[in-house]
Structure formats: structure tokens, C-alpha cells
Amino acid sequence: MKRALLIVATVLAVFGIFGCAQGGGEIKIGGVGPVTGEAATFGVSTKMGCQMAVDEWNAAGGLLGKQIKLIYADDKGEPAEGATVWNKLIQQDKVVAIVGTVMSKVSLAGAPISQAAGIPMISPTSTNTKVTEVGDYIFRACFIDPFQGTVGAKFAWDDLGARKAAAIFDVGNDYTKGLSEAFRDKFLALGGEMVAFEAHPTGATDFKAQLTKIVQAMPDVVYVSDYYNDVALIAKQIRELGYTGPLVGGDGWDSPELTAIGGAAVENGFFTNHYSKDDTRPVVKEFVAKFKAKFGSEPDALATLAYDAMYLMLTGIKQAGSTEGAKIKDALAGISLDVVSGRVQFDASRNPVKSAVIIEIKGGQQVYRTTVNP
Ligand code: PHE
Question: How confident is the model at residue 254 (pLDDT cuts 50, 70, 90)?
């Protein structure tokens, strides 16, 4: 009788561990990024960063005694597709947390789904303020656009000596609109003049109407807050219209495609970013070397922030000692961790306070200029 009980107990224990434990000894984490669509390099880089962090943790013994499984989904850079993959990851794949996504407008579609389901999310790179305002399960690993726009405006004013500025942005994109507004507000506060502030429709390829107005207003600097594809086209068209002055923009410029498409037109271009691979801090050097050895390419900001965001999420789960969403979000809220892109500690709105770098496009290369602290 005792023996029979022991067998029953053993069977129960074994099932408890291997049967009921989620996914049979695995912890599933969702990853999301645009692997296809208007900003495809963003999603590819993000995936590499997520995978690298997961592989490192698995090699070091996993998480809470289990292996971690990354389930990565393509949001195509579209909000509707973002909502679809968020639902799939949570309901079908049963992930316990999500690292994603890149574009603010798509994170804004995923965040309410995470919040309602109680599945914590860290966006590596969505910088629009509204993203983390969705609720207490939503975090980000990057600075926000009011800071990024301020850094751009100060750079234009101080370093470029600009006194008259113009801006162009995508009217259907929360990120580019918010970022241009942040630039404008700071530039005006510094005493500058905004001589043009032009919206273009989403998906446009001909920007001549807006750019003609901008060029006629004779700005000292033009702020372009779009993603790299649009930036390259805008640069080409504004150069054709005879503008030779500086172009300044934000993190959306960060892609090898910028110079591939934009060529000479994006020279005399500067943008704010989260990180530079040329940063001399030892942690950056070590990360860049490890990344190159694994993937054969250099990590851009997207890859680095995704790696950092995944590290933060896995550390949050470890500190929570649980895969329960409510416990993970509480652990994340109190975290303080040095990651590749800097120290992360969340403020009351679940945004980390971090520095920005300024990068110059020179000879077709991204050249690190300076780091700006908040
Ligand atoms: N910050 C952009 C957004 O919020 C996304 C992005 C981040 C693009 C980093 C490039 C590099 O939409």
C-alpha cells in the first residue's frame, strides 16, 4: 500500500514537472519585429538581438531551471498585423512575456493586448511616449522622443549654428509626428524660428510639394523624423531641389539601407541614436565582438536594444522567481541593471532614463560624434 502510494506520488511529481510545467520544461518568450515591409532591417536586427540573449541564457543553464524558447513573429510594420501576432503569441503559443516591437505605431497596437492579458511587454525601441502609458505591464528599453527631439534641436542650435529650421514628417505615424513636434518645441524654446513644418501622407514616395515649400523658406537645417526608406528619398529629392545644408533626424535613420539608397544625398546628415558600435566602453566592445562572431555583421541599435530588452525581461522573470505576469511586472518595475546600451532603471512611467548618441553620415559610414546625457 505504502509502495503504491509512493509510485502514485512519484508519477504525480514527474507529471508536475514535465507534464504541467509550461510547454514541457520550456519557458516561452515572444519576440516581435518587422521582418518584412517598409522597415524590414529593423525586424531582422531585433530578431538577432533577441536570439543572442536567449542563446546565452540557455547556454548558462536557462531560466528557473528550464530552457527558454524564443517564438519570434513578423508584424510587417503594420498595426493590424501587430495586433494579430500579439494575439497569436499569447493565446496560441502561450508565451509568458513579449519583447517587441520596434515601431511605436505597431507597439501601440500590441500594448493594449498585453495589458489586458497580463502578459508583460518590453519594447526595445519604441520611443513614442504613448506606448508605456497604455498600462503597468508595458515597459521599454529606450529613451523617449521628447528627449530625442530635444537632443536633435540642441545639436542643430549649438553645433550646427542653425537659427531657422524646417521639419518634414509622416502624418500617419505617431513616432515621426511626435518626434518632429518635440524638435520644434525645443528649437522654438531655444529662440529659433520654424520656417516650415510639413506633413506628408503615409506611403508617399514623391515629397516634392512639401520639400519645395521647405526649400523656399530657406532653413539652416531640415529635420527629417522618418524611417530610413523615406529619409533616403527625402534626402535625394531635397538635394535635387538645390538644398545643400544639414539634415538632422532620429533613431529611425539607423539602417545600412540609409546610405545604400540615399548615397551622397544623406551626407551632411546627423541623427540621434541609442548606441554606437564605436562607443569605447568595454561592455560595448565585448558585445560587438560576440555579435560579429555569431552573425558575421555588426550590431546596429536595433539589435543591441533587443538584446538588452531580452536581458531585462529574463532578469525580471528570474528575480520574480515565477512566470506569472503580475510578479514579472513587479520585478521589472524595481529592476536596476547595466546592459550594453547603458544602465536601466524604470521611472514611474516605466521608461528608463538614458543617454543618446549623435551620429554623422560621412563617406557613406556612420561616424560616432558624441554622447548626450539627459
Ligand atoms: N523609435 C522608432 C519608433 O518608435 C523605432 C526605431 C528605433 C527605429 C530604433 C530605428 C531605430 O517608431
Answer: very high
Confidence of residue 374 (pLDDT cuts 50, 70, 90): confident
| pLDDT computed for residue 17 by the predictor | 44
Residues 292 and 195 in one domain: no
**pLDDT of 218 above 70:** yes
Q: What is the largest CA-CA distance in the chain?
A: 94
Residue 129 has pLDDT above 50, yes or no: yes
Whole-number Å distance, alpha carbon 126 to ligand 1 midpoint, is 5
pTM of the model: 0.91
Bridge partner list, 152 = none
pLDDT at 313: 98
Residue 3's CB: how many other CB atoms inside 10 A?
7
| Pocket flag, ligand 1, residue 127 (CB < 6 Å) | yes
For residues 228 and 258, the answer to whether their CB atoms sit within 8 Å is yes
Residues 152 and 128 in one domain: no
Is residue 86 located within the same domain as residue 177?
no
User: Can you tell me the distance from the alpha carbon of 218 to that of 227, in angstroms, rounded to the nearest whole number?
Assistant: 24
Residue located via cell numbers 493590424: 80
Domain boundary among 213, 243, 273: 273
Pocket test for ligand 1, best of 42, 44, 102 (most atoms within 8 A of CB): 102
